[in-house]
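hi! just following up on the protien thing from before. the input was this:
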Amino acid sequence: MLKIGLLKKLLVIFMVTAFTFTSVNAAKKEQKYIIATASTGGTYYPVGIGIATIASLKLADKEKIIFSAVTSAGSGENVDMLEKGEVDFAMLQAIFASMAWHGKAKYKGQPKKNLRSVSMLWQDVEQFTIKSQYVKTGNIMDMKNLYGERFSIGGRTSGSRVSAEIILSSLGIDFKKMNIKYLEYTPSSIALQDGKIQGMSTPSGPPTSAVTNAYAVIGAKNIKILEFNAKNLKTINDNYPVWSPFTIKAGTYPGQKTDIKTISQPNLLAVTKDTPEKVVYLLTKFIYENLTFLNEVHKATKTISLQKAIVGLPIPLHPGAAKYYAEQGIKIPVNLIGKK
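and the predicted 3d structure came back as:
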């Protein structure tokens, strides 16, 4: 979990950097780029702040380039904002990027061919957390015990909502039989603590602050993150093959004494093909040259590595990112070479 003190420090550093840069270079033309993240209770936002901060510190003075990170409703809104030119970069779930690129589901007949990928990031771990009174087996199929109960499935336009709906529908769990609430991560956690909902879906890189807070306040004996078995995974991947097994190690959350067997899908950093090659190249470069810094921002980033940078990307690479990877000796497959 990102410590509050560290997040405040990042925000202060970023604001001071931006002020200094603006003051010193008032007569010079600055380039500003916005990174869309998600709600503050997940992993996207703190990592986005971290990327924007370190990149701005490295590039503001010499290259006159600064970055800022903004909150959003998640992957769905991020795709829309990229398309409208409201943001320049965005974090996306692999399932959302795949649907947008291929024109499936909500994008049927309207593929987003302007999208390009920058890097694979960390795994978005599925965390269906429910009150223990509804747990019979500990498996995801226990979600059926929430029929008629209040359950937060994520923001209305979030990737969290879409991934949850795909997972539940694939397994024959009719989420429409639940009293669905469309809350972001932090409001979901608070509602769960207050007894206003009986469960929540918060896919992100663990430890997830919304889940940590729920465990700390409610107690590990009173809530549980449901598990997935091999049969569950195969059934889900028959629809969209982007998920893989993932283990949330014991001790990740307060009072969590045993490993939790769940599933995950990759997250990626995306951009539009029109973003300048130099800007994408430099951002990619500084992400990988400053992984130690990002690891301090959030533990989920410890899985980011050059060896995994392009593994499983559902959309072609931006030429700027491809240039950096080629310099590092990474062979770019034909399917990831995008048109300029």
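The chain has a mean pLDDT of 91.
The chain has two domains: 4-122+267-336, 125-265.
cheers
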